[in-house]
């Protein structure tokens, strides 16, 4: 009876701690994942709202873990931010994308700018500008093909380092996008101060586009109006339905990104899209 009690306890404890166990395993394995080439970059096209032509893509990391299968970045990026491996992982993504752009140019594709997510932690550490400059040089890639996505939240910290880094990147010719716009309470003054090229309207607003949700559509309309006045491009994220597309078309939103056109796809599939410039 004592033995059974112990097993029961272990079972209970295991179930309760499955998330922390997974967290433990992922964290341990993350250190070797780059060497083991378990990370992969998927690309999600960003298309012109009016024509459906591919104008760019967002690079989204995937981790093919030997035991757990595909692990979503929503799960491991926060861990990597906690244990600081985000620096190594983030650098790997930037280098991989630069290398890929070189390959596309050599293959003769019409290359579109690729957006890369930069963690606020990476943004605050010194040396990002030099790192990016060296890579553009190494792979002979024009800076205009890179766009760095920075969350609205990380701008709110408004550290001097962050501002200097953004200035340095802009001087290189790298584009800056404000990600998840509308979720971080950044004021309009921030938009002017950061001088971003692109605003990405967060998917929560896009998913509420319908007759009943006047408030969210009002937010989208005013962001579009404002962006136009400040010469910024607007991308709506998370577009899944025709109703949303039609609304965004009518409001003259520049580009859209979402499952309606394409999920993030592997390199092979993205290259097929690049060949024609359209999503088949
Ligand atoms: P994010 O930057 O906001 O990226 C957009 C997320 O929305 C992606 O999830 C994408 O697959 C998803 N998405 C796109 N269209 C739709 C749609 O129509 N409907 C819905 N429901 N979802 C859509 P994913 O790839 O799982 O990435 C999650 C988050 O992980 C990203 O959010 C970003 O914050 C982070 N992340 C991904 N890759 C990287 C990376 O290389 N570096 C860093 N630092 N963070 C990354
Ligand atoms: Ca993003
Ligand atoms: Ca986003
Ligand atoms: Ca997000």
Automatic annotation (TrEMBL):
It comes from the Bacteria. Coiled coil: none annotated. This is Diguanylate cyclase/phosphodiesterase with PAS/PAC sensor(S). Residues 23-278 form the EAL domain.
